Amino acid sequence: MLYQGTVDGMLSNEGFFELKAENNTKLKEIALQHPSIDKVKEEDDKLLVFLQSNLEANDLNQYLFEKGIVLQHLVKRKNSLEEQFLELTNTK
């Protein structure tokens, strides 16, 4: 796959959340049901929740709370240039 575009275009992705709850298995299951969430990866004791469309932290927090999930950790991040490169060149 060949990517053509600007660095700004690469960095304009929707970013991701770092999440943690008492029950990360249930958190992952519920998170994947949200229409703005593309995929969820487990990393150490946290979940990395990748977005396919914009989602604000307070909206995600409210959604999860309404589904019975109380978060212990919530941080919204943007992919760094290095993370974007690795995502674009992933050959899985």
Account of the 3D structure:
The protein has four helices and four strands; from the N terminus they run αβαββαβα. The radius of gyration is 14 Å and the shape is globular. Mean pLDDT is 83; it is low at 1-12. The protein has helices at residues 7-11, 24-31, 57-66, 81-88; strands at residues 16-21, 37-43, 46-51, 71-77.
In short:
The protein is an alpha+beta fold. Helix content is 34%, strand content 28%.
Number of separate strands: 4
Indicate the low-confidence ranges by residue numbers: 1-12
Mean pLDDT: 83
Q: Helix and strand succession? A: HEHEEHEH
CA-to-CA gap between the ends? Answer: 12 Å
Put simply, the count of helices is 4
Q: Judging from the principal axes of the Cα atoms, what is the shape?
A: globular
How much of the sequence lies in strands comes to: 25-35%
Largest sheet: number of strands, sense, barrel closure: 4 strands, antiparallel
Structural class: alpha+beta
Helix content: 25-40%
Please give the radius of gyration in angstroms. 14 Å
Physical arrangement of strands within the biggest beta sheet: 2-3-1-4
